[in-house]
Write a structure and sequence with these properties.
49 residues; mainly alpha; 35% helix
């Protein structure tokens, strides 16, 4: 999977649905966030808009 590094900002992710944000990419990001959350001993994290 090719990930455009420009989507990652200091405190957020920015992109365009179905162009820079595909279902596979968002699934991979969510999976990694879940792993990091569990590794930190937490059971949840907050997503804001």
């Amino acid at each position: 999977m090719v990930i455009d590094p420009s989507i990652f900002k200091a405190y957020d992710l920015r992109g365009v649905t179905n162009r820079t944000f595909t279902a596979d990419l968002l699934r991979a990001i969510g999976y990694q966030l879940g792993l990091l959350t569990l590794a930190a001993g937490q059971s949840a994290f907050v997503v804001g808009r």
